[in-house]
Design brief:
about 450 residues, alpha+beta, Jelly Rolls, five-stranded antiparallel sheet, 18 strands, about 35% helix, binds 2-oxoglutaric acid
């Protein structure tokens, strides 16, 4: 009988190699970072038969729970003959983290872990939408899933969205190369100049990120950005165009769910010059003291709909749900969608923009490419009449006026912004701080 699952991912620690006897360590696999590190502690040590009837504790940063050894062994043995190691590890992590059934079958959670369990349960419920199902029998359920995500999360993740994977891989590769070549030194110089190398106290007015901005619409600035290779520009142009189409399709799906005519949102975003569409390319370098500084402080996005291509190896994006910060799980080749303040206004609060932030990580450089499909600067924004209540709660304004306000108060709650826009004279009372470059 096999004594224990083995393989490079599961290393049965040996005495003398610095790991206590009795532990199995599931090594962090770059592609599947959700549980970060799962440690399997064998309750007893010995032959496999000795383990049967016992439970092992599984610890991750989300939960600590127990699973019967037999159950774990069955799971493992159904996989260990598959030669594809990534597949095996993915399957195991998937089962340990993404299955409600597994959670239900899990015997007990320690009481003090209750909160962590709640957060984990929210994480595994994070809405993932298979967009290809919009063309098939499951269209209605898929539209309902999108609607639920817009009403209750302000966020969802899409897969099978039609963007070619090789383009995404190329964009990721070139963005990482570009960072190494032209941005990394600048970031390190910034740390020096701002005295952030030691991080002895909590920093609340700077973000641990390195960014640059590309504008696609109404006029592209792609060829004005220095230090980009022609190849990188071409890939970003193609990527931007495809995301623009995707954003417009998604807006129409939102219209359908909201009972608005097709094209309603696009038309409202149009103004006289068409929508504004831009991409913020970010890297979040490893940070020695993640507890002292955020990669990006908590905020809601000002604009319309945001499409985020995030690193599938290094996590960090979190959204605020019912008072808890929930991880937005990295998923290979997915696009994360979230709604900005304008959609909250137009839907009169039926959909909400949701606070999110990026936490820093001790290890790994996180790439994120966020594309913002926003109203044009002179677009007039107001709650859709069919969604407005008698006493319309949300204000009407010209988008640029909202952006001028937002630039100074991005990291403050959105409600005073809406209040200020309702009463234009109150705008100055918000006392905008230093302006931030944003879409
Ligand atoms: O980098 C990310 O994951 C999120 C970026 C973001 O929220 C923003 O730029 O507004
Ligand atoms: Fe954001």
């Amino acid at each position: 009988m096999v004594c224990s699952p083995s393989g490079s991912a599961f290393s049965h620690h040996q005495e003398g190699c610095g790991v206590e006897r009795g532990y199995l360590r599931l090594v962090e696999m770059p592609r599947y970072t959700l549980p970060t590190v799962v440690v399997l502690q064998m309750v007893t040590v010995g032959g496999f038969e000795d383990w049967l009837g016992h439970t092992i504790s599984v610890k991750s940063r989300f939960c600590a729970c127990r699973i019967a050894v037999l159950e774990f062994y069955l799971l493992w043995s159904s996989l260990c003959y598959n030669d594809n190691e990534e597949y095996r590890i993915g399957k195991i992590i998937g089962t340990l983290t993404s299955s409600h059934n597994w959670l239900l079958r899990t015997k007990t959670f320690q009481d003090e872990r209750y909160k962590e369990r709640e957060i984990m349960e929210q994480t595994i419920k994070f809405p993932v939408v298979n967009l290809s199902k919009l063309n098939g029998e499951e269209r209605d359920q898929t539209m309902a899933l999108i609607n639920d995500a817009c009403e209750n999360w302000g966020f969802f993740e899409i897969v099978n969205h039609g963007l070619p994977y090789d383009l995404m891989d190329n964009v990721e590769k070139m963005t990482k190369e570009h960072y190494k070549k032209t941005m990394e030194q600048k970031f390190n110089d910034m740390l020096k100049s701002k005295g952030l190398e030691k991080l002895e106290t909590e920093v609340e007015d700077v973000d641990w990120e390195s960014t640059f901005y590309l504008r696609h619409l109404p006029q592209s600035n792609l060829y004005d950005i220095p230090d980009m290779s022609d190849e990188y520009r071409t890939a970003m142009k193609d990527f931007g165009k495809r995301l623009e189409n995707l954003a417009e399709n998604l807006l129409d799906q939102l219209c359908e769910n909201l009972g608005l005519e097709k094209g309603y949102l696009k038309k409202m975003f149009h103004g006289t010059k068409g929508p504004s569409f831009g991409t913020k390319v970010s890297n979040y370098p490893p940070c020695p003291k993640p507890e002292m500084i955020k990669g990006l402080r908590a905020h809601t996005d000002a604009g319309g709909i945001i499409l985020l291509f995030q690193d599938d190896k290094v996590s960090g994006l979190q959204l605020l749900k019912d008072g808890d910060w929930i991880d937005v799980p990295p998923l290979n080749h997915s696009i994360v969608i979230n709604l900005g303040d304008q959609l909250e206004v137009i839907t009169n609060g039926k959909y909400k923009s949701v606070m999110h932030r990026v936490v820093t990580q001790k290890e790994g450089n996180r790439m994120s490419i966020a594309s913002f499909y926003n109203p044009g600067s002179d677009a007039e924004i107001s709650p859709a009449s069919s969604l407005a209540s008698k006493e319309t709660e949300y204000p009407s304004f010209v988008f640029d006026d909202y952006m001028k306000l937002y630039a100074g108060v991005k990291f403050q709650p959105k409600e005073p912004r809406f209040e200020a826009m309702r009463n234009a004279t109150a705008v100055t009372e918000l006392n905008p701080a230093a302006s931030v470059e944003t879409f």
